[in-house]
Amino acid sequence: MVALQRLGWALIVLLGVSIITFTLAFLIPSDPARTIAGPKADPATLARIRQDLGLDDPLPVQFGRYLGRLLRGDLGRSYVTRREVRAAILERVPATLFLAVTSLALAVLVGVVLGIFTSVRAGSRTDMAVLTLSLGALSLPVFFLGLLLLDLFAYRLRWLPLGGYGSLSSVILPACTLAVGSAAYYGRLVHTNMGEVLRQDYVRTARAKGLGTVAIYGRHALRNALLPLITVIGLDFAGLMGGVVLTETVFNWPGLGRLAVDAVFNQDVPMIMGIVEFSAVLVVGANLVVDLLYAIVDPRIRYRS
């Protein structure tokens, strides 16, 4: 019952996103007919294109037609390339998925290790130093960090390629750029949660029974401390899959973020709307998956109506 309620709310959210996206598309100061026909098209040609696209119909009729296409999985056709938007998005998904998984795995690995390491030394100089570095990493703009890494490791040292997609070496710099800030945040999150868990009574009982540090941290404390991290990871993955605009632009990565930038510059309204809808589905789906994972990781959690 609760699962159906959550699914219903997810559909309501997607409907709201569709309404907002459709409304914003008409607020964009652009003429789809002129985008298709070019700046030198005559008025008769522009009028014929608007009629073919149904742009002369009332807004409720256009919105109903738009929702009907969405229900069929049809995201429309690009004004610039005349390709189906769905096909263009699916073509870019592998590159974005590769970057998202690599950067997220690196961020989780470094963040969890960093969080455990600092929680053992809570309040020490090491903990304060790591906290300061973490705040600095979180404050760095992604595009600025990406340009620094490009300048050092690709241009000056020539250890890695300047950009592009197609090899393992090409993903190292963009993945590290995305992972730095996330790893710092995950590390502080795990550190805080571990500190709270280690003060619980069942941890004191485990110590009183003579369990070792590895058993206490690994078997008892870490599992409960990672629960809040699951939510953040799920939403971060959905955000990464929606397209990392600045990072993909800096590293010339052919993913959804780069596709979105090109669509904005070309005023390709169907492509922009399709990417927004695709990203919304990912975020809503990630929330549903996170809810299920909570119940699996912590059996004490039960969803009741």
Give an account of the 3D structure:
It is a single chain. The chain is an all-alpha fold. The protein folds into 2 domains: about 1-70; about 90-295, MetI-like (MetI-like fold). The chain is about 75% helix and about 0% strand. It contains 14 helices and no strands. The chain has helices spanning about 1-25, 30-35, 45-55, 60-70, 85-120, 125-140, 140-155, 170-200, 200-210, 215-225, 225-240, 245-250, 255-265, 270-295. The mean pLDDT is about 85.
Summary of the model, kept short:
With 305 residues, this protein is mostly helical. It has 14 helices and no strands.
Question: What's the topology here?
Answer:
Blueprint: H1 2-27, H2 32-37, H3 43-53, H4 59-71, H5 85-120, H6 125-139, H7 142-156, H8 168-198, H9 201-208, H10 213-225, H11 227-241, H12 245-250, H13 256-265, H14 269-297
Helix pairs in contact: 1-14, 5-8, 5-11, 6-8, 7-8, 8-10, 11-14, 13-14
> Roughly what percent helix?
over 70%
Structural class: mainly alpha
Radius of gyration from the alpha-carbon trace, in angstroms: 24 Å
- The end-to-end span amounts to 7 Å
In terms of per-residue confidence, which ranges show pLDDT below 50 for 5 or more consecutive residues? Answer: none
* Molecular shape: flat
Count of alpha and pi helical runs = 14
| Whole-number tally of structural domains | 2
Largest sheet: none
Mean pLDDT: 84
Let me know the number of strands: 0
Proper CATH architecture of the largest domain = Orthogonal Bundle
Assigned CATH class of the largest domain: Mainly Alpha
User: Which fold name corresponds to the CATH topology of the largest domain?
Assistant: MetI-like fold
